[in-house]
Amino acid sequence: MKRLQDKIALITGGAAGIGLETARLFLEHGAKVALIDLKDDDLSAAADTLNAGDDVLCVAADVSSAEDSARYVKAVLDRFGQIDVFFNNAGIEGKVAPLVDQKIEDFDRVMSVNVRGAFLGLQHVMPAMIERKSGSIINMSSIAGLQGSANVAPYITSKHAIVGLTRAAAIEAAAANVRVNSVHPSPINTRMMRSLEEGFSPGHGDETQKQLAASIPLARYGESIDVANLVLFLASDESAFITGGQYPVDGGLAAG
Ligand SMILES: NC(=O)c1ccc[n+]([C@@H]2O[C@H](COP(=O)([O-])OP(=O)(O)OC[C@H]3O[C@@H](n4cnc5c(N)ncnc54)[C@H](O)[C@@H]3O)[C@@H](O)[C@H]2O)c1
Q: Which of 44, 70, 176, 202 sits in a 20 to 30 Å window from 252, CA-based?
């Protein structure tokens, strides 16, 4: 069964990792997909991987820029005429350091991409969904949006902010039948975790990976497809009565 037949999906941070895997799954389920990411080269490589011809639109944009956010949403509406699903996914991890040693410019950059970027995406996508009285938005948070941990205070702060943003947007959009939820993955096997592992223990990232995996009740990292499967459910009409919620996909980590 194709669960997103003829729907138009917009994915930020779509050229790699979880965003790209979600694009692949959405296409398999009948959607047309717009990928937003920083660099044309990365987007071209992602589109080649997806191999779905005109069903994929690529737009290079920085989600933290108000101008770029308006431009990428307009490009998707110009090409496809509507947006049914918005996976507000682009994010960065920032630097690993104790809170007292974090540089303010690094804090600002994480907040700028992870919070301002997600906010701008909502500002520009929601009107198009509200006008059609239909749409599903999935904001990317993290287990780091539900729990604290040491040495990544900017990231933790930014991902907690996504919970508030999701709740506020869900309340405002509900009257127009537009749903807004957040997803909260534990460590997932992508570039981002390699960077964090190295940051936590320089030169010994492999060891950190083993320790982190052992701390998860299901005893492994998640794969991008584990997250994509949850996002597909929240994007589809199967979740028609679900809005304003936080959904862990974490091998049981938040249960501890
Ligand atoms: N990997 C994990 O363990 C994990 C766990 C929980 C949450 N997340 C979140 O999932 C999301 C995707 O992460 P990932 O693991 O796929 O990482 P990734 O680094 O593989 O992919 C992120 C993508 O976002 C893009 N991006 C970064 N800044 C951008 C900007 N300003 N404008 C547009 N695109 C930008 C990157 O170029 C990249 O293609 C992030 O929000 C991340 O915080 C990841």
A: 202
Q: Are strands 178-185 and 85-88 parallel, antiparallel or unpaired?
A: unpaired
Stretch (H or E) spanning 36: strand 32-37
pLDDT of 1 reads: 87
| pLDDT score recorded for residue 191 | 98
Task: Give pLDDT < 50 ranges for the chain.
Answer: none
Burial class (CB within 10 angstroms; exposed 0-12, middle 13-18, buried 19+) of 250: buried
Instruction: Give the Cα separation of 184 and 246 in Å (integer).
Output: 7
Cα-to-centroid distance, 231 and ligand 1 (Å): 15
Name the residue at shortest CA distance from atom 16 of ligand 1: 17
The conformational region for residue 151 under phi > 0 = left, psi -120 to 50 = alpha, else beta, is left
CB–CB of 243/177 below 8 Å? no
pLDDT of residue 122: 99
User: Which residue in this structure is represented by tokens 């049914």?
Assistant: 84
**Is the CB of 62 within 6 Å of ligand 1?**
yes
Does the CB atom of residue 158 touch ligand 1 within 6 A? no
CA–CA separation, 82 and 92 (whole Å): 28
**How remote is the CA of residue 59 from the centroid of ligand 1, in Å?**
16
User: Distance, CA 178 to ligand 1 centroid (Å)?
Assistant: 24
What's the CA gap between 116 and 109, in Å, rounded? Answer: 10
**What pLDDT digit, counting tens, does each position of 51-67 carry?**
999 999 999 999 999 99
98 phi-psi bin (left φ>0, alpha ψ -120 to 50, beta other): beta
- Which residue, judged by its Cα, is nearest atom 43 of ligand 1? 91
